[in-house]
Write a structure and sequence with these properties.
Length: about 110
């Protein structure tokens, strides 16, 4: 059974930074693509970034150049470094793999 546990959310001022982490169990991490999604208040969940097993990455246009996704296959973790945060980045951030989502971690950016 795949389980994903996110951490690292919080309250930050606009322009600030946060680093989210996700620990994965029950999955062959080394061959799995991992992703981050977010759900802004009152809106649907949206894709943010993906990192493939070969290290290749993709980003939503809204976060490109500000966010960086990375992975540690030894620790079976995936991280999302978020810089230059904006109020529109506020939301619940979810880790994802194989159609499974974690419980989410709240990110709030104050303007």
């Amino acid at each position: 059974q795949v389980q994903l546990v996110e951490s690292g959310g919080g309250l930050v001022q606009a322009g600030g930074s946060l680093r989210l982490s996700c620990a994965a169990t029950g999955v062959v991490f080394e061959i799995s693509s991992m992703g981050w999604y977010r759900q802004p208040p009152g809106k649907q969940r949206e894709w943010v970034a993906t990192i493939h097993n070969d290290g290749g990455t993709h980003y939503a246009e809204s976060v490109k150049g500000r966010f960086t996704i990375s992975r540690d296959n030894t620790k079976k973790t995936v991280s999302l470094e978020m810089n230059g945060l904006k109020s529109e980045d506020t939301g619940v951030y979810y880790c994802n793999t194989y159609h499974v989502f974690g419980q989410g971690t709240q990110v709030t950016v104050s303007s």
